[in-house]
Queue: 3 jobs
Job 1
Amino acid sequence: VALDLRPPHHLCSRPTSWRNNMFCWWCRDSGSNEPKSEGKKGQDPKDCLAEVAVALPSLPEDKTPLKGTSLQGTPAGEAPQKEQRKGSHQHSDHKGHHHHQRKGSKQSGSGEGRKGSKDYQEQTEEEKRQLDQVQTLLKHADSAFHKNNWDTAIAQYTEVLHLQPANVSALAGRGGVYLRKGNTLAAIQDLDKALSQDPHHLFALRDRAEARLTSGDVKGAIADYDTKLALAPADGKALCGRGQARVKIGDREGAITDFKFATRLSYPGANELLKSVA
């Protein structure tokens, strides 16, 4: 006897947007609440399988309501999953084998978990030790920098970069030291790396501007000074540097403005630079 397994239209779980574009066995393509009398010709019955399972939960499992599929979507010709599980434990030796295998797997997994936890703890402790070492090295390097002890500062910054090659503070610090030692090429290389990671690093911006100005890249220097002064306008050194760069490109009025501002900030040498262009 043929079974009409189409459930009432209100049980269709497809979204309205889907029904508006495709035919369902019991829903109009327009999203109407009226059930459709016939399904779309050639429609794959599996498209509506989920709704059938929801609408007819009390159907016996051995019924095959849709050709080629069972109620749970098991392809015809295949044994139901429940029977397969039952058959897999018919022999006692297989059952024992699976039992011991699962038990052994559980114990092995537990051991691996403890080992993984221990490795993670050791890794975390190692990272903490490295972080402490980096902070100590940076502190010594900055101290040497402020004392104009350039060689010691370079050594300390370089050691930090061996541990953390992308450390922005170490790159900016070593670049600043190279600049003050007159090695503008090495300075620009370090400062470029620092600014690629932190484009708003104030000291790196000002030092690279000075290095560019010294190496003849006047436009690049002005660009760096502009960025630096937009972030921190009250910087006498940057104002004087940009003023000198403006003098080189013939921007006398711009240079005077920068030198006057630096003079009001009482930056050493700003007044002399102002007099030289006034």
Job 2
Amino acid sequence: MTIEPKEHAVDTEAYPADKASKWEIPLESDQWILSHNALRCEINSMIQALGTFMGRIDDDGVPQWAVNTIKEWWTSHVAHATVHCKSEETVYKPMFGERFKWPAEIDQLHDALDSVKDKVQTAIDRLNAEKSNLVAVRDALSTYEATMLKHFEVEETTALPLMRAYFTPEEISPVQRKILEDAPENAMGALIFAMSPDGAKFRSDFMTVRSIPSFVWYLAFKGRLASYKKDVVAKVEAIESGKEPAKKSGWF
């Protein structure tokens, strides 16, 4: 989809669509897309893990640890996804609306995403030892994923290029930084993990192009990646492998 920024102008004289050339960071490396990639990775990894897990169990063979693990993963994912959408609605939309017309389809897809998210929650609440209920969760997550991907596609082909046409990097950078700072702890870890599980690509690409000093990795980012792996990735890996996550023992 190709969008013509001038067709979405609020006031072409006050706010001309002439800022796109000022952006050095490629569109695909914009924080908005990277945040989407984090959610893409998070939801798809669990869908794939559930498919593998279902091939290993009998009709009444869903163990309680798996039920608990899936529910805990979903709670974390919902917090991540909800805050992401809220930032678009409460930060991006009013700010961008001063210079260009916010695409109505984005709001429609947010409503659709809320609806399918509620259906996933219903399926999650019914999860028990019966395999059929696990299948229902996987199917609901697949529908949720399809809606989410459509939502991301529309934003990335409309609102994102419009943002870059009407705003400079200097105007957007502090806004995006605050969005990440206000997000759940695991949102930053998810973004890092989606770029590369070891954090190397985040350090070489994200940090370097944004002139973030290397020592900040140890102060602000390394621990968040570790927490995300422990709190979210480990749950997906447990379902994928069919092995209950290791429990902490002793004092530590």
Job 3
Amino acid sequence: MGGRFGSLYYMGFFDSIVSSVQEAVDDVSDPGTSAELQQVFENLGADKVIAGIKEALAVAISEAIEITGKTDGFLANELIKIGMPAQVRPFTDSMRAAGFGGLVDEFELSMNRAAEESAPLARDVFVTTIRNMTVEDAEKIWRGTDKQAATSYLNRNCSEQLTTSFAPKVTEAMSRNQVTKVFCDLVDKVEGIPLVAGILKGVDLESYTVQQALEGLFKVMGEQEARIREDPAGTSSQLLHSVFSRQAFKE
């Protein structure tokens, strides 16, 4: 993993979450904690568990940001590419047939560029959310059968905060990429196509772009987490292999 995001390990980017995970581990002797989790912590050692969770989260989040937060990170990825709003898509062919294909493409390009510029802004919110992780959260993330458990946890617990934090930044990126201008140009051009202009005018452009940017980020993060869980040895990290390997839980 290269670039400025690949250097996050060495910058200690996720050091700020260690204390919260340590507190969760310190609570493992509480009578309410499952005996199985206590045994696993005892077998592996609390320090290794803390470091493993830290590194797994660092890998998934850093790689997701690196993948999405660059030119064509959204646009060239069909899984997360931001297209026309759902309510307008049935009319896309009509708009292209009427000669407005260039404007449609320009509009989609502008939204994807705004999402790409905004993606790296998610990291601080993720760190804040991870700080509030409980031992029960850690157990679900670590031991659950869901290969995207950590991503799901972050999605549940920080989507609202991410939306709030993203909105002004996405608005700035949209302005730089002239999303609203292109959108207005498109609305003006399709006035003659029945229903289309009215539907377009009803689109909350900022909310749509923010939502699509976040959904794309979480999709890529989920893919990265699943990859780590399926093949922890493939990360070249002995730590991840030890903590996430099923064999480690049985030793």
